Amino acid sequence: MNVYMSGSLVESLAAFVNAAGSPADPTTITFKFRPGSGAITTIVYPDARIVRDGTGAYHSNVDTTGWAGPGNLLYTTEWIGTGNVQAPGADYWEVEPLAL
Which end of the chain, C or N, has fewer beta carbons within 10 A? Predict the structure, then answer.
């Protein structure tokens, strides 16, 4: 699992493919993330916080500023494609407090 220092801008990536395995764009793209047991943030494309990098390829940057500990904070992210490409995907990473 990746660990980032609080204050990092963490890039989350999504790669959608059709049934044949070729890159394809879903009709609707939703990105969700949650720091620890906190509130879930939901973003739906074409919100500017989701960037289309090419057919089926998207990213969003998550700001981790503010975690002061104690310990590491688990982030959960989820990409959901519906319509033309139906595919969910999840990822997990941790944020550690600043060193000083």
Answer: C
pLDDT in tens, 70-83: 999 999 999 999 99
b (16+ CB within 10 A) / e for 11-33? ebebebeeeeeeebbbeebbbeb
Range of the domain at 29: 3-96
Which phi and psi angles does 85 have, rounded to 5°? -130, 115
**What CATH number has the domain bearing residue 46?**
2.60.40
User: How many other CB atoms are found less than 10 A from the CB of residue 51?
Assistant: 14
Q: What share of the chain is helix, strand, coil (3-state, %, to 5)?
A: 0, 55, 45
